[in-house]
Design brief:
Elements (H helix, E strand, L loop, with lengths): L1 H5 L5 E5 L11 E6 L8 H10 L1 H14 L8
Length: 74
């Protein structure tokens, strides 16, 4: 998230199968933009992202159950 903010890029959240790397799992299940522009600190922005975990996991599970290939359809 910090690099996205520093580079002026959109921030987002990814739900993926994990392996020993970071965001290198074999299958990305869900990705979506998450606006953090209203946060006044990095800690506040991170808290906002982490507060969405249950919502994002639920979307990912629904995509897996629906057989969406790679889960990348939004």
């Amino acid at each position: 998230m910090e690099w996205s903010i520093l580079c002026g890029e959109p921030t987002g959240a990814t739900v993926c199968f994990i392996d020993e790397g970071i965001d290198t799992g074999s299958w990305t299940v869900h990705w979506e933009d998450v606006a953090v522009g209203t946060a006044s600190t990095i800690a506040e922005a991170k808290a906002n992202l982490f507060s969405l975990d249950a919502v994002l996991y639920r979307k990912a599970v629904k995509k897996i159950a629906a057989g969406v290939p790679n889960g990348l359809e939004r």
